[in-house]
Amino acid sequence: MATHPPELRAAAQHVGRRRLLTLAAAAATLAFTTHLPARGASAAPELDARRITKDPFTLGVASGDPQPDSVLLWTRLAPSPYDLDSGLPEERVEVQWEVAYDEWFALVVQSGSVTAHPEFDHSVRVEVGGLLPGRSYYYRFRTGTWISPAGRTRTAPMTGGLGSLTFAAVSCQAYFDGYYTAFKYVAEEDVDLVVHLGDYIYEYGVNAVGGVREYTDVRLPAHFDRETVTLEDYRLRYALYKTDPDLRAAHAAHPFVVTWDDHETENNYAGAIPENTVPPEEFLLRRAAAYRAYWENQPLRVPQQPQGADMQLYRRLTFGSVAQFDILDTRQYRSDQAYGDGWQTPGPESADPARTMTGAAQERWLIDGWRASDAVWNVVPQQVVFAQRRNAATADHKVSMDAWDGYSASRKRILDGAAAAGVENLMVLSGDAHVGYAFDLKADFDDPASRTVGTEIATTSVTSGRDGVAKPSNWDLMMQANPHMRFYNGLRGYSVVSLSSTQAEIDFKTVSVVSAPGGTLSTAASFVTEAGTPGLTPRSA
Question: Does the pTM exceed 0.85?
Answer without folding.
Answer: yes
